[in-house]
Amino acid sequence: MFVARSIAADHKDLIHDVSYDFHGRRMATCSSDQSVKVWDKSENGEWHCTASWKTHSGSVWRVTWAHPEFGQVLASCSFDRTAAVWEEIVGESNDKQRGLSHWIKRTTLVDSRTSVTDVKFAPKHMGLMLTTCSADGVVRIYEAPDVMNLSQWSLQHEISCKLSCSCISWNPSSSRAHPPMFAVGSDDSNVTYGGKVQIYEYNENTRKYAKAETLMTVTDAVHDIAFAPNLGRSFHVLAIATKDVRIFKLVPMRKESTSTGPTKFEVQIVAQFDNHNSQVWRVSWNITSTLLASSGDDGCVRLWKANYMDNWKCTGILKGDGSPLTGSSGQPSAMSTVLGSSVQSSQNALNGMSAGSSAWTF
Amino acid sequence: MEEVDVEPTITNIPAISDGKHMGFAWGPGDILVYETRYKASGASGSGCSFIHEIRKDEDIYSPILRKLFNESHHIFVGLQTIREDLPSKRDVNAQLVRKNPHSVFYSDIHFITLFSGTILTLICFLLKVSILLAIELIWNLCEVLFIDAAPAGSLLLHLLDWVRLHKADVDEKAREVLQSESPAEHRDYWDVVVSYVLQGRLEEVRQMLVKQANLQPAARSMYKQMDTLLSKMPFYNPGGTQTLTEFDVKWRHWHEEVDRCLQDNSFASNRHLELICKILLGDEDTLLDHKELLGTWYHFLVTRLLFCHPTVKLTELHYYAQSCMTMFLDSRSVPEPLDNILLAAFEFDIHQVIKECSIALNNWWFVAHLTDLLDHCKLLQSHNLHFGSNLREFLLLEYASGLFTHHSLWQLAVDYFDHCPEFGRVYLELQIERVPLETERKALKVLRVCEQRQMSEQVRSICKIMAMRALRNNRLGSALSWSIRAKDAAFATLISERFLQDYCAKGTFSDLDLIDNLGPAMLLSDRLTFLGKYREFHKLYGEKRFREAAKLLLSLMTAKIAPQSFWMTLLTDALPLLEQKEVSHQQQLVLGHGFLPHIALQKLHKKRLQEQKHNIPETRFADPISCS
């Protein structure tokens, strides 16, 4: 792996989240400087900042894009106890020429009494729904019934998780085989009670979300959580960032026809890695769920991959080395091994290229 | 299959201090990382961090690899269409366009020298060429061993071909020598001769030796003797009538004759000829003395077999392979990845070949295609994997997923997914949605792929995205046609409303072409139907076909598909019809009274009364409602 380019983010304080849009042509960054920036990728791969504006009166923790079916919509959440929804307005042609765009606030969600720690849009087949979770332990699900009017959001569900919440993840599956489901992680540090991950499932009959599962084996604070894309499987895969990286498999058990409660799951742990040595802060899946990335206290980002026998191992590490940034964009690392060695000999070349890693896709 | 424990690669990120937290975000084909600090609350730090875009080493954007991907795609698709029940190896071979990958990139040399002159690019190119050469070496060997799988006799001939194909430098040197003034005195002359002997190219050896013989008339009889030996060396002829046993007997006789020449010291006075004699006998030490000319242990292996055991069988290969490798490599040197791969091939350990290739090569391309090929020859006894998938599919999915992030190679990837029965479809569904839709043309390309495969949800989603984008940019016509294609009634209704609102505001319709040619799509939503029919009404009126216009207007009113906000406009449109002769009295009455219970017309009605002399009874109306 190599650094292809480095973008000067220009935030005046720490960046807390970076989020690619659905097609990977735009990204949003948010920071403790209370602003959000939107960047557009040009044809030649260069990133340009097309908008930058103050969004909250406190650090902005997360920023996320809605599905492009709903237009160009962002949501942000902050230490200032609010979450906000933003929509891009197609500007004057002058602005377009200058490569600028405008974002306006459509709504502020003020229900939380504490810092809002995560904000996520539900899968698109559920409509335009936004979920927040807060340090006060409440998960809130809002819906915009009229997609053309983003200033109208109604609070559909308010779920008290009893423990301070740090992260939420929706199961992206749109299969009719499973009802809508999300997982909540808690960063409550009291290890005497377990169950720092709770899974909630929508019940068609009661029209409410009910707790389907609590992962009792997760007793340490959870900082991030991520459902893997479903890939047509009957079971679900959930990655958790806690004092280590954990991957769980949730297998729905067959429901009796009379049962009206939430699905029961068989919970299996698929992998557990403590290479980060201390806390793991973020976990995230790539698009095909073949790679999991995690970031931890050791200052590294690690990449995890399962081989075809479903054995997981670390296939790459990204590590800051504090070296100064070079002026030009990077070249593949193969370069350094080539210089000086004979390029005629295929033997040498293959050996030089031996990166020692099994190839993986993003 | 044991898992080889390989250390993960470490990539250093500049401008992020050692030990600082790193945030990340997955993108298509890359991962972004940035310095941050994770704390429960109120973390802050210095600003101006960098966001780094991290990519894989292997470069799917290289023009050389591009051509390779295209060609292997062609072969792959051809291979899949062979009848599943009868893939004889000959069929497979016939299908395999046995294009020498040399052709792929040598034709590109010209291209490369044109397109970029930097040293870096050139080295990169040469590196890729070298890797491709290595890959070709492996691939050809796999073909020889696994697909051709020739019996004893022919096997050696195939191996000889294989070695000769990959040792092109001999011919270059030979050309240089022959083009010189006095070839026999050229300093590389004997090297060339010996190299030819090592490759079993005895005709060329004889031709070269003639030149030397001419220079040394005194030694003519010795050269004649050597020439005879060389000409009599038996080579197995697979198409001939000679059996393997007969060949073996003949070969042994010849071998004994050569040995006798050596024992007789026939060539003792000429060290070069004596050397050739020893090589012909397959003398190990002599061969090992010429490591430089052999170059590799596998050349050594084939040469040794040629001169010691030309009737070698496939099953015997691995004995020789391991020992040759050990003998050739110094005790100091460790086998390199390429060596391991080739050795695994000679040992017929296909799984090991694949595993070693996966480790050594950055791109799944080779491994995926090789596995697919072997699978088609039923050579791959795959383990029963998770979800019932198999190794072939796993590798193909990996490879194709890698292609998908490329702005045009994604189209090749589609075919690969099509031929992965377990997960191909779901992988395709997942990834095709993410293809950026920069232009309408691209969107249509993506749509065609989805429509051909009845991926209706993806079709709907893509059309909806395009419709939304058009609507945001106020391109109502485009938005409408995309919603129709998405079969999104709700959105079509919304856009039709906008059209109607526009009409109220400006008095004309935009995008007339579209609305005029809606056809059956009009039925998608009531509002859309109304829009289409209303425009039709306008057309009829404009063509002065008043009776039909009136009839249409009537039906619009009675069918109750007109939005309430539009009734005022409809009635306003109705009024001029009241004074047309073609419109029947009854129609007029109905038109005039059509909406009476619902809306009031007082002001407008009075105005019309002043302008006409029709006898319309005055009725009481409520206040008019505006058109919005």
TrEMBL record, chain A:
Key words of the record: Cell cycle, Cell division, Centromere, Chromosome partition, Kinetochore, Lysosome, Mitosis, mRNA transport, Nuclear pore complex, Nucleus, Protein transport, Repeat, Translocation, Transport, WD repeat
Cellular location(s): Chromosome, Centromere, Kinetochore; Lysosome membrane; Nucleus, Nuclear pore complex
Entry's Gene Ontology molecular function annotations: structural molecule activity
SUPFAM superfamilies (alphabetical): WD40 repeat-like
Renumbered ranges of WD repeats: 8-40, 273-305
GO-annotated cellular components: kinetochore; lysosomal membrane; nuclear pore outer ring; Seh1-associated complex
Keyword Disulfide bond: no
Domain of life per record: Eukaryota
UniProt record, GO biological process: cell division; cellular response to amino acid starvation; chromosome segregation; positive regulation of TORC1 signaling; protein transport
Biological role: Component of the Nup107-160 subcomplex of the nuclear pore complex (NPC). The Nup107-160 subcomplex is required for the assembly of a functional NPC. The Nup107-160 subcomplex is also required for normal kinetochore microtubule attachment, mitotic progression and chromosome segregation. This subunit plays a role in recruitment of the Nup107-160 subcomplex to the kinetochore.
Protein family membership: Belongs to the WD repeat SEC13 family.
Official protein name in the record: SEH1 like nucleoporin
Organism whose genome encodes this protein: Astatotilapia calliptera
Phylogenetic lineage: Eukaryota, Metazoa, Chordata, Craniata, Vertebrata
From TrEMBL, chain B:
Keyword Transport: yes
GO biological process terms held by the UniProt record: mRNA export from nucleus; positive regulation of DNA-templated transcription; protein import into nucleus
Pfam family of the protein (one): Nucleopor_Nup85
GO cellular component, one term: nuclear pore outer ring
Primary location: nucleus
Record's keyword terms, sorted: Membrane, mRNA transport, Nuclear pore complex, Nucleus, Protein transport, Translocation, Transport
Alphabetized InterPro entries for the sequence: Nucleoporin_Nup85
MF terms (GO), sorted A to Z: structural constituent of nuclear pore
Location(s), subcellular: Nucleus, Nuclear pore complex
Keyword presence, Nucleus: yes
Subunit relationships: Component of the nuclear pore complex (NPC).
Biological function: Functions as a component of the nuclear pore complex (NPC).
Family affiliation: Belongs to the nucleoporin Nup85 family.
Entries under PANTHER family matching the protein: FROUNT PROTEIN-RELATED, NUCLEAR PORE COMPLEX PROTEIN NUP85
Record's protein name: Nuclear pore complex protein Nup85
Species the sequence originates in: Astatotilapia calliptera
Name of the coding gene: NUP85
